[in-house]
Amino acid sequence: MTLPFAMKGRLSECLLLSYRTPARSVRHLVPGTMDLVTRDGWAFWNVLACRVEGLRPAGAPACLGVDFRHVAYRLHVKARTAEGNTLDGLYFVRSDADKRRVRRLGNLLTPFRFNAAGVELSAAKRDGAVVLTVAVTGRDDAAANDALLRVEAGAGIEPVWQPGTGSPFDSADDAGRFLKYRPLAIGPDLDGRYLELAEVVRDESKWRERPVRVLEAHFKFLRRLGQDELHLERATRVDPIEYRWRLGRRAAVAPPQAVAPATGRPAPAVRAAA
Prior knowledge:
mainly beta
């Protein structure tokens, strides 16, 4: 089912961090209607920190838009639909937003799993570069999910990926292709029969990511989940870009595949002792 509902806005600031983690450590976080995207036993977090400007229903005047800041923790996943398609996207484990009305409306219309929090995103110049700071302070759950991220952006910064670090990727380009931000959020509905989808429509020709240097990163939420084997694979800053979110579409989940009966010769009966 598709509902004719869309939101639009502008990502005026956006940071993306990709971490690898042992798949076994996060498999329980993903609903049974979808699978982790893995490579060599690793699963992948996509951590987003962004500022959205002018969020409003498509077609509404800009004066009705809402500005907010958003931090989200997503896992790369895939899911099969009843039509035989495979969806490749992100499963939101948690989102923090600094506007309560965004949280209330977002949890009704999207699978983003919003929580109310104080989110600050600031920039300062230092030695010709820009240092961006993201700070999350809890509201609904005290300080249990606070975060602090500080990165340096500017010319000449190399990608995070380096050889000999245990990465499952062959190069920075390989990591970039595999971990590119999927413009699709996937979540289960209440009874598990459908997947709820939130699709991002953007001009791919204007999507540009530039490497940033992570100076410090502390995410209490990930630590609380026992994520003590995180390895940074990629860190980028996205150029400002117009976004449109298509909401309301659902896809029926593929039925469980039947397990084929064993076809081997049955084991011989055990003779009772005389």
